[in-house]
Design a protein that fits this description.
2 domains
């Protein structure tokens, strides 16, 4: 069995393995199979045999994902996600070899921390992301929306009236509301409307995307809670 297949199987049974051991195993594989990462490590003069803890693993600067194809091996991506590019005219790219694995792994992680998507109504306020067709966040939220099998799960974009109406309806069901939004959209919502979301899960995706003044996470969370 090749490394990729073996490692994929281990990821779906992560509780049976030691995380640090798997991370170090992946580091060694990426060093050998990813030419961009390998050259970066060598330029730093790092002896990979001396990497014994995950805190010692060097991170590849984000700039390389803008200027190089960061891939292990030579293959054609099934999809390439791109960053929002708010801090630079050039977006960083994440090339995905197998979209089925990416989807299944994303759903597996959600299940691990939140339970089955069928327990929720997913309501998404992601205007700056929906304006692009290569957002990994939109892809993952869309998969959760479909998996929830809820008539209220949807991307609401700028349709705040429909969102508020469906929040009211969803609160009368046995499923919990899961509101996912970019920071500025969530702040706009709570400042302009009086909503009781005390029983909902609210997940902010970070960043004001140039629409508002940036704030630290604690300040943002405190404001949303109020």
């Amino acid at each position: 069995m090749n490394f990729n297949k073996s490692f994929e199987q281990k990821l779906f049974r992560i509780d049976q393995y030691d995380f640090d051991t798997l991370a170090l195993e992946l580091f060694q594989y990426q060093f050998n199979a990813n030419p961009v990462y390998k050259r970066y490590i060598k330029e730093l003069g790092i002896d990979t045999d001396q990497i014994k803890k995950i805190t010692q693993i060097p991170f590849l600067p984000i700039q390389f994902f803008k200027s190089h194809k960061v891939m292990c091996g030579d293959w054609v991506p099934e999809i390439s996600f791109a960053s929002s590019g708010t801090t630079s005219s050039m977006a960083s790219k994440h090339h995905v070899k197998k979209i089925d694995f990416y989807r299944n792994h994303s759903l597996s992680i959600f299940n691990k921390f939140y339970g089955s998507p069928t327990q929720y109504h997913f309501m998404a306020l992601l205007p700056s992301y929906l304006e692009r067709n290569n957002s990994s966040l939109v892809y993952m939220v869309d998969e959760l929306i479909k998996a929830s099998e809820s008539e209220y799960s949807s991307f609401y974009l700028d349709d705040t009236a429909a969102l508020i109406k469906n929040i009211d309806k969803a609160k009368r069901t046995d499923k919990r509301i899961f509101l996912i939004g970019v920071s500025f959209a969530l702040l706009d919502l709570v400042e302009q409307h009086k909503l009781d979301l005390s029983d909902a899960i609210i997940m902010e995706t970070g960043g004001m995307k140039g629409r508002r003044k940036e704030m630290i996470r604690k300040e943002l969370h405190d404001q949303l809670k109020r």
